[in-house]
Amino acid sequence: MTDDRKPRPETRLIHSGRRKAWTHLGEGAGGIVNPPVWRASTILYDDVAHLKRGTETNRDGDLFYGRRGTPTQWALADAITALEPGAEGTMLYPSGVAAVSAALLSVLKPGDHLLMVDSAYDPTRNFCDGFLKSWGVETSYYDPLIGSGIAALMQPNTKAVFLEAPGSLTFEVQDVPAIVEVAKAHGARTLLDNTWATSLYFTAIEKGVDLVITAATKYLGGHSDAMLGAVTTHKACWMSLRRTAQMLGQFVSADDSYLVLRGMRTLALRLKQHEASALQIAHWLAAQEEVAQVLHPALPSCPGHELWARDFTGASGLFSFVLQGGEADARAALIDGLQHFGIGYSWGGYESLALPVDPEKYRSATRWDAAGPAVRLSIGLEHPDDLIADLKAGLDRFRAARG
Ligand SMILES: Cc1ncc(COP(=O)(O)O)c(C=O)c1O
Fold first, then answer.
1. For residue 214, is pLDDT > 90?
2. Is the pTM value of this prediction over 0.70?
3. Residue 400 and residue 388: Cα distance in Å, rounded?
C-alpha cells in the first residue's frame, strides 16, 4: 500500500536536488527554480585555517576543490539517490562505461574472481577481459537465465557478481533477487547495470543490489547531448565507492550535470511515452511474417518475461527483433531506408534509433542461435503510427532483398 505522505517517484523527480542553499541567495531574497551551473576549479578560502579545515571533511555540500564538485553536481547526485530507497549516495562519472569500471574497481582487488553476465554490454566485457585480467582479476561469464543456479559457479574468491537486467542487446531478464540471495550468502557484492529500466521502473537497492549503475547518457539525460554515468549505493559500500572515484580523479562538468538534471525533471513523463510507443510497435512487429521473434521484456516471447512481470514496474523504449531468415545486406536494406529512425549508437533519447546487432560476437558462456539477423530499436517520442509505417516499408525492403 502506498503511504500518501511519502512522495511518489514522479514527485521526487520534480523536487529532488533543489535545496534552498543551492537556489537561494539568502533569507527573503527569493530563489530560482533550478540549481544553476557552478563552474569551478579553484575554491578560495578566507584564511589558512579555513583552507586546512577543507581537507578534513569529505562530503558533498562542502566546497573544497573543483574536482569534488559544486552544488550543480551535488544536486544531480541527490536527485539520482532520491530514486533509490535505501541508498546512501551517488557518485558521478564522465560516461556510463566509466561508471561500470569504477564500480567494479571499488569492490575488487587482484586475486579476486568476478562473475559477469554473458549478455553484458560489450565495453563492460572489454573492461573485464582487458583491464581486470591484466590487473589479476579473473572473470567467468554466466548464462543470464541462470537464476539461483549461480551458486554452482561461486568460487572461494568470488567477490562480485555483475548483472545487466535486461541485457541491452538481447533483453533476457535476470532473476535479480535470486542471484542477490546467493551472492549475499557467499559474501560477494552485486552490481547491476540498471540503465534500461532506470530506478523508476526497478528500485535495485531495496531488492538487495549493492551497486546500481545507470548510464545517465540514455534516459536520464534523454536528449542525446550529454555523456554521464552514475553509481548509487547503500551505506556499507559508499565510502569505498567514493574513495575509488576520487583516487581515479573522476569528475563530471557542471554543464553536463545541469543538462542531465534538467532531463530528469521530465523522465517519468518521457518514459511513459517511450513505454507505450515501444509496446505498440513491439506488438505490431510480432504479428509480421518477416519477424521471427520480438525481444521485448514485456512480451512473453522474451526470455525471462515472467521475471520482468514480477519485479519491474514498467518497460522503457529499447528492444530488439529477429528477422526471419535473410543476411546482413537484407537487414541493411531495411535500416538504410528508414525515414524516422537515426542509425547510430546509444539510446534513450527523444529520437528513435535503429541499430543492426550481432550478439553472437559478444558471447562465451551461451550461444546466440537466431532465425536471422537482429535489429535493435530505441523508440523515441515520434508518433508511433509514423514509426510503424516506416518499419512496414522497411520490412518490404527486407523481403525484396532477402528474396
Ligand atoms: C547497458 C549499457 N550500459 C552502459 C552503457 C555505457 O554508457 P555510455 O555510453 O554513457 O558510456 C551503455 C551504452 O550504450 C549501455 O547500453
1. yes
2. yes
3. 18
